[in-house]
Design goal:
Blueprint lengths: L1 H21 L3 E3 L6 E3 L10 E6 L8 E8 L2 E4 L3 E2 L4 E6 L10 E6 L2 E8 L5 E2 L24 E9 L10 E5 L2 E2 L4 E2 L4 E7 L10 E6 L2 E10 L5 E8 L102 H28 L1
Parallel strand pairs: 3-10, 11-18
Antiparallel strand pairs: 1-2, 3-7, 4-5, 4-6, 4-8, 8-9, 11-15, 12-13, 12-16, 14-15, 16-17
């Protein structure tokens, strides 16, 4: 019984999984009105192969295929035409492009032929024709100019070849580095290395210590060539002579006319004034005044005001003759006013005391 229950549970799970795969769930939009089906991810179909002639299309042009499915556009990788043929692989990302029309074009010009996408199909003789062949602007790829090397023998009339001589080659305005001259009279490693394409096919001239060979030009400049030549020179100076180069002709300077100044006629009847030099008036020398130092003004002393209303006591010193016999020394003499004042100060307490007693008796 337990085994049957377990088997039933497994069957239920398998059934549920199959239902989910066969009937995909629907998504509801944000408004909850229009159900939006969930797209099913499928395995990309097998590619389709197209090959054949592209009539009138030159080599180097490209053919592409384009399939439109709704708003999605699929384009193949470009197929470069070689020997007038193309090879195109059509491999859209999913099965929604099956049976859709494949549009083939050559550099933007659509072909007359159309074909439906069929996964796994191969068409090896599918010829394409176009209403016109576009004129593509091809950017030329610069081809590097390869160097050319020379070696051979040197023969000089009447003298032997020396290792310290200088052998160079000239092509146009280009002069090569000196070659290596051996004791045997042979030379090696004479290399022409230039990037100027206009020198290709130009004659090659050889110079030994600045003297041209006989004949001066032997062969033409061929990039990448390795040539062996026999050079003959009639006479060679002991020192190297500069090799003449093509001297450009300077432009002829056009003379610019200059303005000729007009001479002003001077009348002959006008007397010529003789300049009289001015007489110099002597200027007497000016005495320079000697600066006198300023005189100091004496400042009078400030007088001290002595009040006149205060009597100044005069103290008279007594001599020994005025000294009384009693032995008392009188220090000074006082005025009458001072004596009266002193007397009043002595009697004032007595007067006040008597006045007080008198007032008390009246009260009693």
């Amino acid at each position: 019984m337990k085994i049957n229950k377990l088997a039933m549970a497994l069957l239920g799970v398998l059934f549920f999984a199959g239902a989910v795969l066969l009937f995909p769930a629907e998504r509801i939009s944000a408004q909850g009105q229009t159900p939006v089906p969930t797209p099913v991810q499928s395995v990309p179909p097998i590619p389709m192969i197209l090959s054949g002639l592209a009539e009138g299309a030159p080599d180097g042009y490209s053919v592409i295929g384009r399939i439109t499915h709704g708003v999605v556009v699929y384009e193949t990788q470009p197929s470069v035409i070689k020997d007038g043929r193309y090879l195109l692989t059509v491999a859209p990302p999913h099965s929604g492009f099956i049976n859709a029309e494949v549009v083939l074009s050559l550099e933007g010009v659509e072909a007359f032929e159309r074909i439906s996408h069929s996964p796994g199909a191969s068409y090896f003789n599918f010829t394409l024709t176009f209403p016109e062949i576009p004129v593509a602007t091809l950017t030329p790829t610069p081809v590097p100019v390869l160097p050319a090397s020379y070696s051979g023998t040197i023969t000089i009339a009447g003298i032997a070849v020396s290792e310290d001589m200088s052998l160079v080659a000239r092509v146009g305005n280009y002069i090569s580095p000196p070659a290596v001259i051996l004791e045997s009279g042979e030379f090696i490693n004479l290399v022409i290395l230039t990037e100027d394409e206009s020198l290709i096919g130009a004659p090659v001239e050889f110079f030994l210590n600045g003297e041209p060979s006989t004949p001066p030009a032997i062969g033409i400049f061929e990039p990448g060539g390795r040539l062996y030549v026999d050079l003959i020179f009639g006479s060679v100076p002991p020192t190297e002579t500069p090799i003449p180069t093509e001297t450009p002709v300077p432009p002829t300077a056009t003379p610019v006319p200059t303005e000729t100044p007009t001479a002003t006629a001077v009348p002959t009847d006008t007397p010529t004034a003789t300049p009289v030099p001015p007489t110099e008036t002597p200027v007497p020398p000016t005495d320079t005044p000697t600066p006198v130092p300023p005189t100091e003004t004496p400042v009078p002393p400030t007088a001290t005001t002595v009040p006149t209303n205060t009597p100044i006591p005069v103290v008279e010193a007594e001599t020994e003759e005025d000294e009384p016999s009693g032995g008392c020394l009188v220090a000074s003499r006082i005025t009458f006013g001072q004596a009266a004042t002193n007397m009043f100060m002595l009697l004032a307490p007595l007067v006040m005391l008597g006045g007080a007693k008198y007032a008390r008796r009246r009260e009693e």
